[in-house]
Amino acid sequence: MSGMRMLLTKEVLRFWRVAFQTIAAPVLTALLYLLIFSHVLQGRVNVYENVSYTAFLIPGLVMMSVLQNAFANSSSSLIQSKITGNIVYVLLPPFSHWELFAAYVGGAVMRGLMVGLGVLLVTLSFARLGLHNIVWVLVFAVLGAAILGALGLIAGMWAEKFDQLAAFQNFIILPATFLSGVFYSIHSLPVFWQSVSHANPFFYMIDGFRYGFFGISDLSPWLSLGIVGVTFFIVSAWAMILLARGYKLRG
Amino acid sequence: MTLPAIFIHQLTKQYPKLRALDEVSLTIEQGEFFGLLGPNGAGKTTLISILAGLVRASSGQAFILGHDVVKDFQAARRALGVVPQELVFDPFFTVREALRFQSGYFGLRNNGVWIDEILEGLGLSDKATTNMRALSGGMKRRVMVAQALVHKPPVIVLDEPTAGVDVELRQTLWRFIRQLHAQGRTIVLTTHYLEEAEELCSRIAMLKQGHVVALDSTSNLLKRFTGLQLMLRINASLPPAMHSRLLSGRGIAHERLRLRITSYDEAAQILSDLRALGIGIDELEVQKADLEDVFLQVMAQSSHQENVVEKVLG
Q: What is the C-alpha separation between B149 and B115, in angstroms, rounded?
């Protein structure tokens, strides 16, 4: 068995052992968003014809949770082992940079998908949600989680303190996911903010993911897939270059 | 010809403000029990970190059993087991899990028998299912040794494994390491306890400020540097002819003096000379040099040499 698979197993066990914190808590947070926003906005906002606001909101919340938790997983795993020093046990074995990448990003994708599935299950009873095409749903969920897992890997390598990582998470990842059309269609925004949203790769992840459920979206899912695919390629290449160089890992 | 266990060629590590290693070359043969000594900041840990791939050298090369630690890092790391100096552990897992993971990272499956053997040898069997967080410092240290051994490396490097560890653990540890050495593994050890190095290591390199300042078999080092010492207390001042032998003391009456001698015959000669001068002996003892003396002398000598070099160059 390859070392990479064992590292992936460890990455999954690491969050699974504290599942209350890593899975149940974000599911509850998403559920609270749903309860509050759907209570306030249901019947007032109608984004797509024949789709209730609550139904519109659910895929957005699912994807937002997938993305945020994928980022949290790889970044926190890395910074914790860097700060406690046990990263040495990952640096001593003969891992290649792509094996490290695959294991950390794989663990992040697993956590993202588990949380996403959890959010989907607890919110399903609140609205009738169609399923237009599960392939789009899975493709965007996995690619989105992988992008955020790779970003988490980069942030985890870069950060030297929890504080720096928290800044990355709260000032970049959180606003970018919140402002990506989770709670609204960007067509409802003024033109300027529409174009700003178009520069946010998270918007395409959520729009494409939503297409899988409703068969309608702000943009063609193919266009979103193209942009998300290119983003994945760039972020992964960046992460792998840093890993190969041992950026802030090997002195 | 067999490959050396460790071959280091002109290895240099330059940090922004510090040259941690300065063109260090060193060969350690297979099956050696080798000691790496030096004060803090001498470059011992930097050297080990380069071997382990944790730090990259600025220039020079290092090989583990013929595998370049950079170009052929996968084979080099498989051949090497390192016990880091800092006490580190993963708080999420039990002892057995930590070992199973570490073993798996090296691509080994079904390694339970060997893991059991290591646990047994290090007195950890009853702690196998204990969470790492719940272990005492000494027990964590044992797990770190175990983690370095899971992939059965032929070359084992221990970076101050007994720092801050109680006597019982030290003995368990050395018994186990000796056993590994007897099975043909190469052991490299850094330690602050000089008697430990003296007892265990057959060859020793002393590092100071990134340079190897002494490299020899332990017995040669002991011979070369001090030989014997004569401890004396006499009822008169030391005859001027013997002052050149003084290692400590000023040579006044009733003071404990240490004289450098190279053989027991010399001690007999000194005693008969004193008697001929009518000087009485209150106390007398002949001591063999220990590594601590050698170490202090080498460190003092090398700074003397450096001063000379600086004067010449300056």
A: 9
